[in-house]
Amino acid sequence: MTRVGIVGVGHGVFGRRSDATVQELAFEAFRSALEDAGIDRDAVDASVVGSVPEYHKQRSLAGVIQEYLGLVPKPTWLTEVACASGSAAMRTAWMSIKAGVHDIVAVIGCQKMTELSTPEILALMGRVGEVQWESGFGTTFPGYYAMFAKRHMHEFGTTREQLLDVAVKNHHYGAMNPFALFRKEITKEKATASEDVATPFQVYDCCANADGAACIVLAGEGRAREISEVPIWLDGMACATASMSVLRRPSLVGLPSAERAAAEAYAMAGVGPADVKVADVHDCFTIAEIMAYEDLGFCKKGEGGPFVADRQTYVGGKVAVNVDGGLKAKGHPIGATGTSMTYEIVKQLRGEAGERQVPDADVGLTHNVGGIGQYCFVQVLKRD
Amino acid sequence: MFKWFGKVNYTPYTKVNDFARYLKDGHLMGSRCKSCGATSFPPRADCDSCMSGDFEFIEVSGKGKLHTFTKIVAAPTGFEDVAPYIVGVVDLQEGGKALAWFGDSIAEAEIEIGMDVQIVPRIIEELEDIKVYYSLEQPGTTWSKV
């Protein structure tokens, strides 16, 4: 089966995009990905849209995007696995090229979250977990991850300060990213002065809803070498699940789906965690980034707190993590997050990340989580 | 009658409907597969081990240890009137886990991971509709006392 290469990437500004519909956001990312690849849209054989339908008034989103991008009558389809929908779209595109069905596929991760009213958002917020046995007690996304944080602190001595080290780092890099929703550094003092959300989390432990889109163009090896001087190879592409209900999981200190997907992706790509120079991980809440370090093998289980406190995940540390600002600073337009992660790693591996560039980056990784770890996608990307 | 379960209920119909009726009468029930004997809490009608659909309810003690907890301040629709509230996940003595609110017998300052707790069936009485749930209480707390 052919190797799959990334030949073009595009990214729109994340934030409260009251200037655009979701298909208009998708268009921005698609146009810049085609420009980056240097190909005409006629060369694209199919598109895959990663997005979460319940946020949009438009039903069956792939169709309206396909039309607005001018890709009719080529095939398109939508993938949905909550906050990992963008990476699921990447995986089905990768599969279609591997299978020899398509040669060039555009993957569009996109989401418009700010059109919903506050009551609609609060109602959705009550159904993020398993609704039969858990939601009747008023559980929320921050509430679940807060319970992971409490347990992690109890078992490993992870501290409130270490959680905030994640937020401070990601806002530091977000300040340098023109696509980020929040482009300001923060201090721990500012973070601890913010409102409680779910203990131990305050506002600055949590990512923010946003609108946005990012597009990735994939091609089979032959076409990828023709199109691109520096194709970035998608050599590891794994997905795993964990039970929907947290009550069916043995412990709440990590995501078993992430551990499994990482092991598989490393094996596929023939690399290990020590080879990864730069990673984008799913920091929907501060504890989530600390657990990601451990689940991905960047440090031992339980050592994620000291790992960030020692600045091992800054540029210049053992592995640079979320040096685009992460979900924390970029904002989290859920369908677009997976492709936004891939965008950053491609730019880093090409050496085009500007003041945030990680030196000698040749192997990169993305870790995109859906729900509370119900789904996890891990990609390993390489430069020749 | 599963629509009785939870302050807000999203799943009124289920094969384990009678769970809520038992809870209303003060009994906390798990399930046992009649084919292979595997037990589960929360109960499930279709066996996760042997895939049989033949099950029976079995009463569980509700005794357990606190696995983790959080105080939810930003509440979703239907819970604004009770916020903030403290939610805990418990490792049950007989296996399985449960998620519930802390009840009045445990003060916030006393809550710590690893503590012994008792899951106690409860009814929200001030409402016209029947609403049942369970809460985390001091070990030894019984249904009739809350």
Q: Roughly how many Å is the radius of gyration of chain A?
A: 19 Å
Structural class of chain B: mainly beta
CATH class of the domain at 4-117 and 209-227 in chain A: Alpha Beta
Distance between the termini of chain B: 22 Å
CATH superfamily of the domain at 4-117 and 209-227 in chain A: Thiolase/Chalcone synthase
Beta-strand residue percentage of chain A: 15-25%
- Calculate the mean pLDDT score of chain B and round it: 94
CATH topology of the domain at 4-117 and 209-227 in chain A: Peroxisomal Thiolase, Chain A, domain 1
Walkthrough of the structure:
The complex is a heterodimer of chains A (384) and B (146). Chain A has a domain at 4-117 and 209-227: Peroxisomal Thiolase, Chain A, domain 1 (3-Layer(aba) Sandwich). Helix content of chain A is 37%, strand content 19%. Chain A has 13 helices and 12 strands. Chain A has helices spanning 22-37, 61-69, 85-98, 118-125, 141-156, 160-174, 188-192, 221-227, 256-269, 286-295, 304-309, 326-330, 334-350; strands at 4-11, 46-50, 76-79, 104-111, 196-198, 201-202, 212-220, 232-241, 278-281, 320-321, 363-370, 375-383. In chain A, the strands form 2 sheets. Chain A has a 10-stranded mixed sheet with strand order 3-2-4-7-1-8-12-11-9-10, with helices on both faces. In chain A, a hairpin with a 4-residue loop joins strand 11 and strand 12 (375-383). Chain A is globular and about 55 Å long. Chain A starts with a strand and ends with a strand. In chain A, 62% of the residues are buried. The mean pLDDT of chain A is 97. In chain B, strand 1 and strand 2 (39-40) form a beta hairpin. The longest helix of chain B has 7 residues, at 18-24. The two termini of chain B are 22 Å apart. The relative contact order of chain B is 0.19. Chain A binds chain B through residues 119, 122-123, 125-127, 131-140, 142-143, 146-148, 150-151, 154, 195-200, 245-249, 251-252, and chain B through 5-11, 14, 42, 67-79, 82-85, 87, 89, 96-101, 113-114, 133.
